[in-house]
């Protein structure tokens, strides 16, 4: 079965032109202008954009905060209606168990049964034993090439100290496993939180007050120093603030292989959202905390200039009514994280491209192409190129609409972008050539998503033989 998408404006991380895309056996078989090829199905994309399906490298479909668990892969249709065709899920290593073993169990019992997008995994270090450090270099054999350590969250089972981060960096570097860190100073946050609660400052607003920018900046610099001592690359996730971005940029300019991701919420939401009355502020409790307008502007500039490499959602489907309320009398018990997997493209387009803050090419890069590369998925995902999976989004730039929880498929009772106007909407989404979203509505099925093995970092260059690319001069 072949499909030909005709006359769309094809946007890649480096290009933009009106053309056609041929899909054959789930792959992109040809890309070009006026392709004169017969196909079983013709899709007219005149006036629309054809974008590569998004790669959201930071989602949580199994995260547990003090006993409260997020909604799982059974809600991953939210990702695909928002234009994301691949997600990378964080799986917490079970105590006393291997990383691969834990991930394989989760895949078998949940992801493979329910996923409605393609998916890959990051292992989260929770039990940093010598056995684990021996296992890390073998993870790419199982298609797992990224691990995360949480420098934050003192006292929770997934917190890691500097020794664990350093050892993980050393164990990973020669195997092409990328170490990601959640960089916040756990001890200082813990001290500030205790002080705040003792003073009776228990409302959601104090979540931000007890997580100032400096706790993130200090841990980011420390993580970079640990990476330097281990002589390893490092990836800082969910960068929230100007000073943190600048810390990464400075180190990178000095030659440290440090990369950074930010998330949708840090581009449009504000610390003051935490002060919303009637416990509405709890909807915005996520870590690192939301910041200020100055930070937002700096982050837009950073993605436009390439100082940060990806924008993810950090999607966490916690319900406000019966989960966030766990912290009604003590903000430290509010589950950290907010939903957003459906809204990443809409926000980046409406508030980035439409305002002139970022180019369409930079959007595609941070939304799909770079996260595919960083996570070892670019052998299949993240770009409109011959031989890659036919993961494609047909995007209508003219549709004006309003973001609302009523049309959100994430399975929770709020959307933190509620009532935000948007211009530009996903109309159709193809996953490996299969039409999964039509007229903006999900038409796929649970289990349609497949595991995508992640190759070790840098392996996309292994097949390139320089001597074969002869240039006549
Ligand atoms: O608040 C957040 N971001 N929750 C999800 C877990 C994490 O820190 O990534
Ligand atoms: Zn984190
Ligand atoms: Zn996260």
Short description:
This protein has twelve helices and 20 strands. By secondary structure, it is of the alpha/beta class. The protein is globular, with a radius of gyration of 21 Å.
Your description of this structure?
The chain has helices spanning 77-81, 99-114, 130-135, 162-172, 186-198, 205-209, 213-230, 242-253, 265-268, 293-305, 344-353, 360-374, and strands spanning 2-11, 16-24, 27-32, 41-44, 49-52, 54-60, 64-65, 68-69, 84-92, 118-124, 146-150, 178-182, 234-236, 258-263, 310-312, 315-316, 392-402, 421-431, 434-438, 441-442. It is α/β, with parallel strands linked by helices. It has one domain (1-473): Metal-dependent hydrolases (TIM Barrel, Alpha-Beta Barrel). The strands form three sheets. Strands 1, 2, 3, 4, 5, 17, 18, 19 and 20 form a nine-stranded mixed beta sheet that branches. The protein has a nine-stranded parallel beta sheet with strand order 15-14-13-12-11-10-9-6-16. Strands 7-8 form a two-stranded antiparallel ribbon. It is globular, with a radius of gyration of 21 Å. The structure holds N-(aminocarbonyl)-beta-alanine and zinc ion (ZN) (2 copies). One zinc ion binds at residues 182, 237-238.
**Distance between the amino and carboxyl termini:** 44 Å
Determine the CATH superfamily.
Metal-dependent hydrolases
Fill in the CATH topology. TIM Barrel
Estimate the helix proportion, in percent: 25-40%
Radius of gyration: 21 Å
Domains, number: 1
Question: Would you count the extended β strands for me?
Answer: 20
Bound molecules: N-(aminocarbonyl)-beta-alanine, zinc ion
Q: What portion of residues belong to β-strands?
A: 15-25%
Count of discrete alpha- or pi-helical segments spanning 4 or more residues: 12
Question: What is the CATH top level name?
Answer: Alpha Beta
Contiguous low-pLDDT stretches (5 residues minimum) are 463-473
Name given to the CATH architecture:
Alpha-Beta Barrel
| Overall pLDDT metric | 96
The shape is globular
Largest sheet: 9 strands, mixed
Structural class, from helix and strand content? alpha/beta
